[in-house]
Amino acid sequence: MSMNFQLCPEEAAFLSTVRDFVNAEVLPNTRIWEKNEVFPDEIWPRLGQLGLLKMVLPREQGGVSCSAYIEVCREVAKGDPALAMNIAAVNALCVGHVDKFGTPEQKVKYMDGMASGKVKLAWGLTEPDAGSDARRVKTVAEAIPGRPGYFKLNGTKKFITNAGKADLIIMIANVDSEFSKDGKSAFLVETNQPGFTNVTRINTVGVSASYTTGFDLIDAV
Question: DSSP character for 71?
């Protein structure tokens, strides 16, 4: 059964721009990216320039409808599945997460860079023993005395999309019930600090440019 999404004129024009971008800048490079097993760094600011990293934000901040978001991801996937996967993850799991649950200070510090592509992103849930079951996550976050709102994280993550290139990872970890009633929370971890170490580049089939890795957290703040 086919489904016809009704996009408003502005969203239809946005989708047309995305289609042109895919034909001109993605399709000619997709095999190169796959062979090199990495996207060029300049792809992220380009995605930000096109508005592809803020689609889940409210409309007044440049967001689009769910239907338009889906159609954009489908269109990009025609050119490069790995790029579409990253766009979907950055929007739904990263930008959307900070928009819904981030503190005002976190939004001021990170949101512009996230939406513009200046800050490369990943979302850290999956672990070697837990898979992607958040209930079984073993990574632990401990509050740092004297630094309200700051925690140190210890644990191991695996199969994290774009972690090999990310500047900022939203990390799922266990935390004391004082901070979360269900004992779980999400933490913003900048990767250019002691305590964060990419350990394993994970080979994938068909989406190698996504730079999937496993990494260790040892007192990462």
Answer: H
pLDDT digits (tens, 9 = 90+) for 145-180: 999 989 999 999 999 999 999 999 999 999 998 888
End-to-end CA distance of the chain: 49
d(CA 180, CA 141): 11
Q: Give the DSSP H or E segment for 63.
A: none
Element (H, E) at 78: helix 66-79
Structure tokens at 28: 């000619």
- Amino acid identity for residue 163 in this structure: A
Tell me if residue 95 falls in helix, strand or coil: helix
Distance separating alpha carbons of residues 125 and 214, to the nearest angstrom: 11
Report the alpha-carbon distance of residue 162 to residue 26 in Å, rounded.
18
User: Residues 97, 170: contact at Cβ < 8 Å?
Assistant: yes
Q: What angle do CA 100, 212, 162 make, to 5 degrees?
A: 40
Q: What is the H or E stretch that residue 42 is in?
A: none
> Can you give the pLDDT at residue 83?
97
Return the percent helix, strand and coil in the chain, to nearest 5. Answer: 40, 20, 40
Supply the pTM of this predicted model: 0.91
83-131 pLDDT, tens digit each: 999 999 999 999 999 999 999 999 999 999 999 999 999 999 999 999 9
